[in-house]
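It is worth pausing here to work through a concrete case rather than discussing structure prediction in the abstract. The textbook approach is simple: state the sequence, then state the predicted structure, then interpret. We follow exactly that order.
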Amino acid sequence: MKKSSYSQLNLLQKKLSSIGEKGWFDIFFTSKYRYIELKIPHYDYLRGKVFIEDIIDLYEEEEDEVLNISINHLIDILYTDFLSKIKKGVTNDDKNEVNYGVIANYLVSKQQKYFSLPVSQKRIMKRVNTNLFTFQTVEEEIPLKDDEEEQHVYLTLKIKDAALLRGEVFLHDLSPFLADHSIQIEDVIIILYMDFIEKIKENGNNLAVMKAIVNRLN
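Step two, the predicted structure:
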């Protein structure tokens, strides 16, 4: 089995390594929780907080529980819904099958969009032979400055052991379609959150979505 790490905790490999030390029931049927860290751009974090505050303002009089809602709850709902679609064999193309190629392309493209460092282009002179040179354009990543690095928020997310393991198993199944790209559960969760925030920025609040979140909390 590939010994890739599919999360910060590398839970799948630890579970497999512990087989023989515990029974299968103890390994795969636990109610433990884990904690993972997410790095989110500061603005998108604040935009999520504003969205949560909008929900509270709209529903606080009729829903007491909604007052406890946080970005962590929102992220948990997004990830739970994603896992639910995977379990049912339904992906974002709404077909009754899991198209790993489609999901892999989606995750890789979003990873490049949300996580890639900015690049600069420069022309360099390359020797072709003793008397001939040619110019070639190359790209170099631009490291983040300290003040740019500080424009991120580090969010600790409490996640069910079973939910984390299910996500890692999914990424292991997906790995043949990812080529040389490495994606962890933390990346998937951030992508789901960032895509959600992008839709809010593009289209504004959606009352049906807001109400669905409230119902999920209840």
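Step three, interpretation. The chain is about 50% helix and 20% strand. Residues 12 and 169 are 7 Å apart (CA to CA).
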